[in-house]
Amino acid sequence: MTDDMAIDPPLGLLAELTHRCPLSCPYCSNPENLDRRSGELDTGTWKRVFTEAAALGVMQVHLSGGEPTARPDIVGITAHCRDVGLYTNLITSGINVAGAKLDALADAGLDHVQISFQGDISDRADHVSGMQGSHARKLELAAQVTGLGLPLTVNAVIHRGNADRVREMVQFAVDLGARRIEIAHVQYYGWALRNRDALMPTAEQVRSSTAAVEQARADFAGRIVIDAVVPDYYARRPKPCVGGWGRRSLNVTPAGKVLPCHAAETIPHLTFPNVRDQSLSDIWHHSHAFNAYRGTDWMAEPCRSCDRREVDFGGCRCQALAMTGDAAATDPACQLSAFHARMIELAETAVAEVEASPLDTEYDYRRFL
Amino acid sequence: MIGDGTIPALPRGVRLREDQARGGFTLMAPERVLKLDPIANEVLKRVDGTATIAMIVDDLARTFAADRTQIDSDVKSMLQGLADKRLLDLTADD
Ligand code: SF4
Ligand code: SF4
User: Would you say the CB of residue A31 lies under 6 angstroms from ligand 2?
Assistant: First the structure.
């Protein structure tokens, strides 16, 4: 598969502009070995990456982190993205953004703001984020976003400490004036894997939270869009991770590595190319890392002969590796995987004990190691 | 609900863009890239925040010399669908 024409261009690019973040969420999707400031790409290189991305066919860019606004050049980067035609989406912790910075970002052409909320009750939320007062600051930013008429998405990461409040979270998002809410159960790699036993919801919580999403969809139809990610550990079929490896999106780390998904670095035998050395187009079309699990040729049974192989692409490679030791195996979230029972068992043993209060849960907070 | 006097408008953060890499036009919105068929594109090109539904339908019927009743119901159902997904604002003309 080296023919450029046979490979569709990517639609989205997730730019982890920095791993620095004022919060320390125990489920942070950043890798355990965070990139340090000294290793971050400079402004000029990021701008080149976005120019190349637009030329390659990327339509939307997700300015993420860490906390993307921790970079002093965030406004210039946003303006550049707009100049080259990209739809710009800011994914923020909501800390240190309200006020003049958001105004400047909006003037630069920012299209959409996503604020991560750790819950709808401030003391519980602050316990998860690891920062007193963080919830209140997010609320302040949310009000400014909707006041400017910018679309707001509430990102709600669901875990044992808040899985019983899905309905309330949707109501909370509606009250904030959000147009969209993402209800995403924790995905267990990186920091979340370290904290799996503290984060894993019970089977009953998963059932009731899934039902709560369905009910909220009906009750709030036309008022808010609810995008929900079902928890893998209790699923029957896997999700098409990132829409298929090397098929729709790519991810650039603070230090310039290009990944098919943000957890791809957990696969030790792959080497990921860097934007400092190669063009994005070259990496997308020709790198070994992007071609390794592209399409369906790499699959073994049961995926190889399954009629869903072009639907879910065998699920998540990182999860397959973490659970089975083989990155090319069927995602254990699939009932057809020989490791599916083991995955369920893991989920069930993780939640042998449930805390009396979510405030009692002890987390191994995300930090620079 | 959508009526002849309703004025549709694309809210901030929702915009039309040509897709040079794949061809055609798309509607870009929060976490969505909707590929537009040529008809949807013709409708949305006329959504400027001042034209009413009736004006948009009249213009389409004139431009494409097509049956106004059919266009009227197609346009209303398409725009209502977008509004339900929070991709379009609908305001009454008063
Ligand atoms: S998950 Fe929390 S710690 Fe990680 S980048 Fe987002 S806000 Fe920061
Ligand atoms: S066997 Fe593979 S392709 Fe089939 S549903 Fe399971 S993960 Fe998907």
Answer: no
Give chain A's mean pLDDT: 92
Of residues A9, A87, A225, nearest to B21 (C-beta):
A9
> What pLDDT is stored for residue A308 in this prediction?
92
Residue type, A72: P
For position B93, what pLDDT does the model report?
Answer: 66
Residue by residue, what is the 3-state secondary structure of A192-208? HHHCHHHHCCCHHHHHH
Closest partner residue to B22 (CB to CB) among A9, A89, A222 is A9
- Nearest atom in ligand 2 to the alpha carbon of residue A333 is 7
Gap between the Cα atoms of A60 and A71, Å rounded: 20
**Is A303 close to ligand 2, i.e. is its CB under 6 Å away?**
yes
Burial of B33 (0-12, 13-18, 19+ CB in 10 A): middle
Tens digits of per-residue pLDDT, A62-71?
A: 999 999 999 9
Is the omega angle on the peptide bond into residue A66 within 30 degrees of 0, that is, cis?
Answer: yes
What percent of chain A is helix, strand and coil (3-state, nearest 5)?
Answer: 40, 15, 50
pLDDT at A174: 97
pLDDT digit string (tens) for A203-248? 888 889 999 999 999 999 999 999 998 777 677 888 888 889 999 9
The pTM of the whole model exceeds 0.90: yes
C-alpha neighbours within 13 Å on the C-beta side of residue B69: 0
| Residue A24: alpha-carbon gap to chain centroid | 15
Interval between CA A231 and ligand 2 midpoint (Å): 17
Residue B84 forms contact with A (CB below 8 Å): yes
Give percent of chain B above pLDDT 90. Answer: 93
Euclidean distance between CA atoms A197 and A34, whole angstroms: 22
Token pair of A60 as six digits:
């939307």
Could you check whether the bond before residue A302 is cis, i.e. omega within 30 degrees of 0? yes
Q: What is the number of residues in chain B?
A: 94
| A63 three-state secondary structure | strand
Give pLDDT, residue A5.
56
C-alpha angle A326-A344-A359 in degrees, rounded to nearest 5 = 110
Q: What is the mean pLDDT of residues B58-76?
A: 95
For chain A, residues with pLDDT lower than 70 are: 1-5, 233, 351-353
Q: Judge contact between A270 and A264, C-beta under 8 A.
A: yes
**What are the b/e assignments for B15-28, b being 16+ CB within 10 Å?**
ebeebeeeeebbbb
